[in-house]
Amino acid sequence: MTDVHEVEVVVAHQERATLRVGEVFLKIDADRTRIDVEAEAMAVAPVPTPEILWRKPPVLALAALPGTALGRLGEPSIASPGAWAAAGAAARRLHDAPLPPWPGRTPDEIAAHLDSRCEWLVAERVLPVDLVTRNRGIAEAALRPWTPAFTHGDLQLDHVFVDGDEITGVIDWSEAGRGDALYDLATLTFGHEERLGDVLSGYGADVDLDVIRGWWSLRSLHNIRWLIEHGFDPFLPGCEVDVLRSRM
């Protein structure tokens, strides 16, 4: 690696950090299990992923992907409808792949965790009771039995890289496992509801839109406490709190 003039901190908090050094990304994770899952998931996922340059826990070194992120939460996406459709098609290939060997969380486990987060939001007066109650009811649609699929687990739009209408790679596989395919689709379109039709055109299957909406509410309610405690702002325009308010 030559002509490196600076180290860019991509993201950093108490649990993990990602640094960019030239064309290499260094992922540092306090939980070795997440590093193991990420490497194993990328090895078998039927979609493009970053090249693993080396791995020495707690560090995973990855090559930079060509292209740009599909978008950013809270910002308009300039990616084409074709790029969003390609992201949906990539998600479908992943969901149709053989299941990974490690288990995922059950609806009952997710519901119990969600209820504790909702109680905290109300007790700490982070959000109005009616906003939490309304969205907790919407989230119930997601908490039904599902057929497990190979899921990315955190398929945010800035984890999907595109060049024109082509997917060049998907990053951040540390949450991959057996899960609900519709959770991936909801995460991909979180904060960008207007792009859901493009994603589903590429996905090529009928989905229950109430379940997608349920996952939007659930993800918001679940994540707000973590975001606040790790120095992020869920009240920014287009982010978690706005997603909850849009359901009212």
From TrEMBL:
SUPFAM superfamilies: Protein kinase-like (PK-like). It comes from the Bacteria. Gene3D superfamilies: 3.90.1200.10. Residues 42-205 form the Aminoglycoside phosphotransferase domain. Pfam families: APH. PANTHER family: AMINOGLYCOSIDE PHOSPHOTRANSFERASE DOMAIN-CONTAINING PROTEIN-RELATED, AMINOGLYCOSIDE PHOSPHOTRANSFERASE-RELATED-RELATED. This is Phosphotransferase. It comes from Pseudonocardia humida.
